[in-house]
Amino acid sequence: MVKNKYLDEDLKDELVKIIQSCNINFLIGAGFSAGLLKPLGNLEKTIEIIKQNPSNPKNIVLESYMYWKFFEESMYPICDEVNKENLKYQIEFFKLWLDILNERQSSILPKQINVFTTNYDIILEFSMENKFIDYNDGFSGRINPYFVTSNYNKLFYKQALFTNRKSEIPIFNIFKIHGSLTWGTDSHNRDKIIYQDYRKVLKGFFDYNNGLFTKSSEKDNIGSVISVYEKISKCSWDDLNKDFLDNAIADIKYTNEELKDKYIPFIERYKDTFKIVNPTKAKFCDTIVNKNYYELIRIYCNEIEKENCILFVLGFSFNDEHIEDITKRSLNNASLIIIIFAYSKRDRDNFNEKFEQFNNVMIVGLSEWDKDTLDGSVYIDDTKTKEDGKVKEEEETKEEVAVTISKEKTEESNLGIEKLNEFLINVLKGDR
User: Fold this and answer.
1) Do 358 and 309 fall within a single domain?
2) Rounded Cα distance, 268 and 365, in Å
3) How big, in percent rounded to 5, are the helix, strand and coil portions of the chain?
4) Lower Cβ count inside 10 Å, N or C end of the chain?
5) What does the longest C-alpha to C-alpha distance in the chain come to?
6) How many structural domains are present in the chain?
7) What DSSP letter does each residue of 185-213 carry, written as one string?
8) Is 337 buried (19+), middle (13-18) or exposed (0-12) by CB count in 10 A?
9) Source organism's superkingdom (predicted)?
């Protein structure tokens, strides 16, 4: 059964022991960059419904605008938002893990940490470079850097100037499972991934395409597309379905010339410019088509199936069914430990439901979430039923649990990266 833990001294002592003897891995999702880039919202579900009837011209028009909004709100802001001030906690996070890696006493385990992420942005690279942390992102070369997964099969050493003594250089391996904004295509070899200047590409794409989706007059058809998009954005996740979308897109106006010369070419340019797996549930189908995506998925699977392995999960919801399935299968590896840091109490409940049958999974939250349901240091999932307006507790266990329901509404605290950094400082102290 899944174990629930708190960010406290007991967990600190446990982690100090674990990291001494385990291969360290991270799985990082969009939550790691929360607050900087706009979340997907209804984008994934909308495009998934659109793909059920891809030949419908109005679906094509809407799809093109959805991709534009995704670019405008979740990709283009990277040019300005990724800076030292906005990423101070992410920068500190990786510096702390570098210190932990340096303090580790093991001479058998490599001084490496694997960081797997589904994020396209360059927040990981920026954070590490800010503290001069060495990382391997799979690229080789300087004049024309190219990506190949075999570059991850490397260890790095430095040699003392006078004694010739060699020591391993601590390094972070960055695996971008769904691609990266730094990935481009070689014009002479479409199967070859080359490094591209993300700022230049983002700004160039914005300047070239911005006018396509700007409303210039009341008679401009793009206004009807914008109105439909706003309606979809306000729709709740549960209410967003094919019937709702069919009714909404009925208001979209377009001409055949716009479809041929504007919307279809934009979708093609978008997919050709950004070598990323787009946010749809069909991402697995896209993944196995491209050998680089497939290879990174394979590496993830192999790494977490190694002996004495730990996987820390941050900002990742496991809504990606493919990665969830691979991760759950890997839990047959009895020496694997997965530690999931839940951002909120609701997230913790969702993780408990997903991993309830696994005893090598720990879900970490804050003790204050359970100030009304504490029994020692263990999370108690109290079941309540309402009867005649009163709350009646049902006894789910043999032990009697005293539960006090707070009558005051207080703002719930979240387990963000700032709190996690404070905890890691204590882990580092305990490791010395």
Assistant:
1) yes
2) 43
3) 45, 20, 40
4) C
5) 82
6) 2
7) EETTEEEEEEE--HHHHHHHHHHHHGGGG
8) buried
9) Bacteria
Cite the DSSP H helix spans in 104-239.
123-130, 198-209, 222-234
Contact call for residues 30 and 39 (beta carbons, < 8 A) = yes
CA 344 to chain centre: 16
Cα atoms in the Cβ-side hemisphere of radius 13 Å centred on 395: 6
**DSSP 3-state of 215:** coil
First to last CA, the chain: 32
**What are the structure tokens assigned to 423, written together?**
């905890």
Q: Which helix (DSSP H) or strand (DSSP E) does residue 392 occupy?
A: strand 390-394
Burial code (b: 16+ CB inside 10 Å, e: under 16) for 267-277 equals: eebbeebbbbb
Q: What is the H or E stretch that residue 146 is in?
A: strand 146-147
Based on the domain organization, do 111 and 123 belong to the same domain? Answer: yes
CB-side exposure of 222: number of CA atoms within 13 Å?
15
If one counts every other C-beta atom within 10 angstroms of the C-beta of residue 106, the result is: 11
Tokens found for residue 133: 């942390």
Determine the length of the chain.
Answer: 432
Domain span including residue 274: 43-81+199-279
For the residues of 334-390, what is the DSSP string, one character each?
A: TTEEEEEE-SSHHHHHHHHHHSTT-TTEEEEE-GGGGTTSEETTEE---EEEEETTE
Contact by Cβ (8 Å): 131, 98? yes
Both 211 and 273 in one domain: the answer is yes
Walk along the chain (432 residues) in steps of 10 and give the mean pLDDT of each run: 94 92 95 78 82 88 93 91 92 96 84 95 96 95 91 86 83 95 85 91 96 75 91 86 90 93 94 81 52 89 95 92 93 96 94 95 94 54 41 33 31 84 89 60
Same domain, 327 and 342: yes
The reply to whether 32 and 167 lie within a common domain is yes
Per the CB < 8 A criterion, the answer to whether 146 and 139 are in contact is: yes
Q: Are residues 349 and 273 in the same domain?
A: no
